[in-house]
Amino acid sequence: MIKETFNPNPELAANAAIKNMDEYWALQNKALEDYEGFWKEYADEKIDWLAPYDQVLDESDAPFYKWFINGKLNVSNQCIDRHLADKADKTAILFEGDRGDVEQITYAQLSLRVNRMANLLRNEFGVGKGDRVVLYMPMIPEAAYAMLACARIGAIHSIVFGGFSTEALKDRIEDAEAKLVITADGAYRKGKPYMLKQVVDDALSQGGKSVEAVLVVKRNNEEINWIEGRDHDYNELITSQHAECPFELMDSEDPLFLLYTSGSTGKPKGVQHASAGYILWAQMTMEWVFDLKEDDVYWCTADIGWITGHTYIVYGPLAAGTTTLMFEGVPTYPDAGRAWKMVQDHKINQFYTAPTAIRVLHKMGEHEPEKYDLSSLKVLGTVGEPIDPPAWKWYYETVGNSKCAIVDTWWQTETGGHMISPLPGATPIRPGCATFALPGIIAEVIDPDGTSKKVGETGLLCITRPWPSMIRNIWGDPERYKKAYFGDAVKDGKPVYFSGDGAVVDEDGYITITGRVDDVINVSGHRMGTAEIEAAVKKDDSVAEVAVVGRPHEIKGESIFIYIVLKEGHINKDIKNHINALLAAEIGNIAKADHIIEVPGLPKTRSGKIMRRILRSIAKHEEITQDISTLEDPSIVKEIETKAREA
Ligand code: WTA
């Protein structure tokens, strides 16, 4: 079968960091021949070491891998101070507000603001090395200052996405035992103010006893509740802070941040990242995958509450010394041309977004990109979920004018940075395909026993060697870390990292991601565990049993489909609104289901296991091909099908 393939734009390839596939394979072979040597070369070149490391990789306590042993650095130095000699007046953060207000923050200004904020945290709130700080912030520059201020004084930040509910915020504050919460009164979205601080107030009224103070940035100046003694006004306090804050000498392996993410079982996990390996790979992938050049202006539309916002709005771009655009609003407000107008106004060179956003922009304004001058664009990225070929094609042809590279980047909260992605100057790209593992990353599609899958066969997508930016632990739960990531596949007798995704390799070696093979669903690029949603639904008194599955959705990729069995004697007329209100309160609006149906029972094996595959097929209105004769009550399937058809 001949596959549609698009070669790199020769102009872009001529000056690219990696210019062709020969260069790519040369790098990848170098990594395979001398893995530690490969990483040493980049660590020495890219990181501003404050004390040298004495060993590249320590595998003695696998899977608790350690990188750049005994090295000392500070990530805020890597992102700010070291650029001041030659980039003080260069724009570091280019901020555009929802209402079109623009602010340029140079590296010198960023330095001043981060130093002041670091002093504020250290001196007013006694935050020190190893303390946890929770950020519940809108997309405003102060969120980036807070991250970098934490990094400067060695505090560990844990950002909670602003769409999460009171309950979700409280759980994360408690799990991390945070000392301080940084938030804002609110911000603006679609031309109107929205509020955030109330969620923090509610979370802290229900728990989070470790929190000693709340620092509040005033963004929209709407009226907020204020608790004297606990709440502190950032805008008032910051001006009197000293302009210099000496940074903490951090060990390579000192945690940089926690970020909670969903797994297939239990509560969200606090993914713990380390300092040196993370920042090294954040910077390297910025340079390789986005092919950054000195004067580029780069825009990633993610929210800082997700890993993409961490690595590819703040840490990666600033470590690489580029100009990163931070946007408060949504790309479709006031109209479907907003994003393209911003690309034109700011002469954006690299644009990075999620397939859901591409599908929405496509649907709302197919010809909108043609109205703007998008000639500055060189690289278009996508992340977070599989991209379907029609969305890919529109992105390539209409947005990129068939001259930009599309980098379909596969990675995860746990991987810290890109793992599998085209290289803009080298890789012949194909719609919907993440292509090849980046140099230094050993990705394999295997069976649980380590046998390589044959061409065209779907298997487990594993990273079979440790890499610098990998997750180090699950906060407070090392056993869960081992089980969740190193419990499913073994290669050459050693447990290897399993991503939770399936993938398939074709005859040319191209890797295509087929999606999660575990009980995690991906709605608009947001990862959610079915177990987490089920636990929330079970909190309702009328619910006897619940099963949650994903259903393909034209725009969102997947939507949530819930089957509920009510307790005897319970009737629930408005079950959908009722359960969705519960999900919004327990998790957040992102967890609301498109379909919630009441069924008389769930399809179970005789041993009581719920047959989710059947429920997935029913949600998709697919023919049931599985053998249902082994079910405890095969007749239930017909009844559920009838209910689902009515939904
Ligand atoms: C999915 C986001 C297909 C995948 C950076 C993964 C993708 C999960 C892609 C991680 C892609 C991410 N193609 N699927 N290019 N990128 N995914 O932790 O299922 O929020 O496991 O990190 O998103 O989501 P997370």
Description:
By secondary structure, this protein is α/β, with parallel strands linked by helices. It folds into 3 domains: 296 residues, ANL, N-terminal domain (Rossmann fold, 3-Layer(aba) Sandwich); 74 residues, Roll (Luciferase, domain 3); 125 residues, GMP Synthetase, Chain A, domain 3 (2-Layer Sandwich), CATH 3.30.300. The strands form 8 sheets. Strands 12-11-8-6-7-14-15-23 form an 8-stranded mixed β-sheet, sandwiched between helices. A 7-stranded mixed β-sheet has the order 5-4-17-16-18-19-20, sandwiched between helices. Strands 21, 22, 24, 25 and 26 form a 5-stranded antiparallel β-sheet that branches. The longest helix has 19 residues. The radius of gyration is 24 Å and the shape is globular. The model has no long low-confidence stretch (mean pLDDT 96). The site of 5'-O-[(S)-ethoxy(hydroxy)phosphoryl]adenosine (WTA) has 22 residues, from helix 12, strand 20, strand 25 and strand 26.
